[in-house]
């Protein structure tokens, strides 16, 4: 049987089960004292209205079936004895009994809420951690198909909805049903006839509330989708500010965002209107039952005389004691529907399968020592073929470059070598071991990468470089920066190596950012270096500085270089010329100039630049 989202979520609570057991214990005691506190009103009211039945002889216990009459007779006997001695003392005693019971009820209520906090927040913390770890494990291809804003909405607003819905009702799961159960038990002891009406009310109310709330899940899911939509627009607005302003696109983006928030407004209204029915509906049904009880019970007091007025007053208090938990349970059904919609979106991520599987007998790649071989490798994004029967070898210590027009498949080669994707056909091997049979962590340990977009993080210069080797000391980090020709500009920053560089390193120039990524790669000291158009986005002056750093990085190192610039690849041991996913020529710079017209044309264009 398939687990519900709620059951799956409760699985996160297993490490906190001791808090769940304590919560159940305190809720049992709360519900018990909640019912007893109302029952204790009977002797107090009897004393006040002088309705206590005189009991001069102590009662005799016979069996469990006569327990109710035995308890009542014992209480009447005790009060009779006390009244004969001191009326004021007796009143003080019965009032004190009521106060103590109400005090204990509220103490256990607080303790139940106190311990459930650890369970709720623990589940929430572990859910966020699991969700983040899952996102870290998913392949690069997953993120090319998903919008960043939608993922952010799932990590933030959907998780918050889980907290506001599922986790907020955890304390109701035991407390409210037990409160109803104990109250009904006390009511049955007083009058089984009156309690029959209450028992008919509970399933009727539940059926009506669930009927009203059927569409809540659908509306909640649509709201979360719309929230993801305008978060995506917000992300695009922040990252694309320069283009938006330059092209005077402010009005277009305003309209786009306004349309998204308008849809969110519309669906939020529908959801809240439907959810708002829960309280009034359950309250009206409760008052209707109270009205019936007043009619039937009033006749029993005034006409039949089968129960006393004071007992009926307490009975009505118990009946009202049921209304609040019944109302909370009815609201909980709405809340669960909203939580289901959010949970469905979250578990969509958690249940996503990673197509990049690690072989059960995968080996650790300790060191790259011989050659990397692409053997008739093919790859397609969905149905679009990008790489077609590519075959070449990168020997240890060689620099291999790939050139060609945009869309020819150059960057895809780096993705396949990093195993961000697996080939559709063919095989890639390192030292004779298929890439699919190498442990991913050990593969990444052997590879360093510098991309066209300098990927830096909102942290200090020091910590961004240290990502290359978390165990490196300060001297190693400074030496890496010096080798990348970055030390001088770092020293001029306000706090040197401990200067925050802003979101994506935006406080630095393009050349400075790229030299930091090179320093990071130098600190890692990888066996294989991948340069993916590392100088393509730089101006001439920055390119010269970065080129010096790259030459230091590539020295005595195996490298695969993807480049648009001739200066980057002239010294390559092997140059691959790609077009439409195929290698149309290969050789050294000099041999290709003589033998290949396409390469000769490309070099000519580069020199004109």
What does this structure look like?
This protein has 609 residues and is of the alpha/beta class. The protein folds into two domains: 5-213 and 277-350, Up-down Bundle (ABC transporter transmembrane region fold); 371-608, 3-Layer(aba) Sandwich (Rossmann fold), CATH 3.40.50. Helix content is 63%, strand content 10%. The protein is built from 24 helices and ten strands. The protein has helices at 5-10, 17-39, 41-48, 67-85, 87-137, 140-145, 148-164, 170-190, 192-212, 216-239, 241-246, 250-275, 278-304, 309-350, 410-417, 440-446, 461-466, 474-483, 487-491, 510-524, 540-554, 566-569, 589-595, 597-608, and strands at 371-381, 384-395, 399-403, 425-430, 433-434, 447-451, 528-532, 558-562, 574-579, 582-587. The strands form two sheets. A six-stranded mixed sheet has the order 6-7-8-3-9-10, with helices on both faces. Helix 5 runs antiparallel to helix 7, helix 7 (148-164) crosses helix 10 (216-239) and helix 13 packs antiparallel against helix 14. The chain is elongated and about 120 Å long. The protein starts with a helix and ends with a helix.
């Amino acid at each position: 049987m398939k687990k519900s989202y709620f059951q799956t979520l409760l699985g996160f609570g297993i490490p906190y089960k001791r808090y769940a057991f304590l919560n159940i214990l305190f809720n049992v005691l709360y519900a018990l004292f909640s019912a007893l506190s109302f029952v204790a009103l009977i002797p107090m009211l009897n004393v006040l209205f002088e309705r206590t039945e005189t009991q001069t002889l102590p009662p005799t216990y016979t069996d469990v079936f006569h327990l109710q009459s035995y308890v009542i007779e014992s209480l009447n006997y005790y009060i009779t004895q006390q009244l004969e001695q001191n009326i004021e003392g007796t009143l003080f005693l019965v009032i004190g009994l009521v106060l103590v019971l109400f005090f204990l009820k509220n103490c256990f209520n607080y303790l139940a809420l106190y311990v459930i906090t650890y369970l709720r927040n623990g589940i929430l913390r572990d859910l966020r951690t699991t969700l983040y770890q899952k996102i870290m494990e998913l392949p690069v291809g997953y993120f090319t198909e998903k919008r960043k804003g939608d993922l952010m909405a799932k990590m933030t607003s959907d998780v918050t909805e889980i907290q506001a819905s599922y986790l907020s009702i955890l304390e109701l799961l035991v407390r409210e049903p037990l409160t109803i159960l104990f109250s009904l038990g006390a009511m049955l002891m007083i009058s089984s006839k009156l309690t029959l009406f209450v028992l008919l009310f509970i399933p009727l109310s539940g059926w009506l509330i669930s009927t009203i709330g059927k569409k809540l899940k659908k509306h909640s899911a649509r709201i979360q989708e719309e929230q993801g939509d305008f978060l995506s627009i917000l992300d695009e607005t922040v990252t694309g500010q320069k283009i938006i302003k330059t092209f005077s696109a402010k009005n277009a983006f305003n309209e786009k965002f306004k349309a998204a928030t308008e849809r969110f407004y519309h669906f939020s209204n529908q959801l809240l209107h439907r959810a708002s029915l829960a309280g009034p509906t359950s309250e009206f049904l409760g008052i209707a039952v109270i009205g019936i009880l007043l009619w039937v019970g009033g006749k029993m007091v005034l006409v039949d005389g089968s129960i006393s007025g004071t007992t009926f007053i307490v009975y009505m208090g118990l009946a009202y004691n049921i209304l609040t938990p019944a109302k909370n349970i009815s609201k909980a059904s709405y809340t669960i529907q909203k939580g289901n919609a959010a949970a469905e979106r979250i578990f969509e991520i958690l249940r996503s399968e990673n197509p990049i599987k690690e072989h059960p007998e995968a080996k650790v790649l300790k060191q790259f020592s011989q050659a990397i071989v692409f053997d008739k490798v093919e790859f397609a994004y969905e149905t679009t073929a990008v790489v077609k029967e590519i075959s070449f070898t990168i020997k240890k210590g060689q620099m291999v470059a790939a050139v060609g027009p945009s869309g020819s498949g150059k960057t895809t080669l780096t993705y396949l070598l990093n195993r961000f994707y697996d080939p559709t056909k063919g095989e890639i091997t390192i030292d004779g071991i298929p890439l699919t049979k190498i442990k991913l962590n050990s593969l990444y340990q052997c590879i360093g990468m510098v991309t066209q977009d300098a990927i830096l993080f909102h942290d200090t210069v020091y910590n961004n470089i240290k990502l290359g080797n978390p165990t490196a000391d300060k001297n190693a980090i400074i030496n890496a920066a010096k080798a990348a020709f970055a030390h001088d500009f770092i020293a001029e920053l306000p706090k040197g190596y401990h200067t925050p560089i802003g979101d994506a390193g935006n406080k630095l120039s393009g050349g400075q950012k790229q030299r930091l990524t090179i320093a990071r790669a130098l600190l890692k000291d990888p066996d294989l270096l991948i340069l993916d158009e590392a100088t393509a986005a730089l101006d001439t002056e920055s390119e010269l500085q970065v080129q010096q750093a790259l030459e230091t990085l590539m020295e005595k190192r195996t490298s695969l270089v993807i480049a648009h610039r001739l200066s980057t690849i002239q010294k390559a041991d092997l140059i691959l010329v790609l077009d439409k996913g195929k290698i149309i020529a290969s050789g050294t710079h000099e041999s290709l100039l003589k033998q290949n017209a396409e390469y000769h044309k490309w070099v000519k264009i580069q020199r004109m630049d």
